[in-house]
Specification:
The protein is built from 4 helices and 9 strands; from the N terminus they run αββααβββββββα. It has about 200 residues and is α+β, with helices and mostly antiparallel strands. A 3-stranded antiparallel beta sheet has the order 3-2-4. The longest helix has 24 residues.
Amino acid sequence: MDYDRSLADLLELDSTIGKTKEWLKRNKLDKDTLVVVTADHGHSFDVYGSVDTQLFNSVAEGEDMEKKHSIGTYENSGWTSYVDADGDGFPDSWDVRFTLAAGTAGFPSYKENFQVSVNGTFVPAIAQGTSHHHYKEHVSNPANSGISKPGTIAGDAPVGVHSLQDVPLFAMGPGSEAFAGIMDNTEVFHKIAEALGLGGN
């Protein structure tokens, strides 16, 4: 649920794939190397608008309905303030005025302020003793500020959970044509084996 860091990780992965492709081409190995990149699961993550954090922060804590007026959707959603002036593929600052309004479907109760956590990893929920004999109940972290979001999952989970959504798959090189279209994740192994000449069964 630390969305800024998740997006930074995604940019890192994208950069790594790009550098790998460049290296393979430079060393004339791109025609002989199958590259397959995918995820093992999704998180039901999506972006639904943008947030004016200056307006968001100007509203008193606890005034959730008023704070929500800083979130723009559809034609009221503008561009973010992220800038990449040095051209390294990453925002020069993650702490900007206009950010993404984003979230997931499966999460514990927490407070969302749509801003990067500048003092370490965002901790959405914390354990509240051992009120149940087999797990610790987690509650919204009182150290956080923002809009209160009631959880959609049981209190024994302190973070967001995996989802069943389809995930993208990128493939290039010999045998990559076999990865087109929609497939069950168990097919990926067999398609790699086939591309290596080991047979598909």
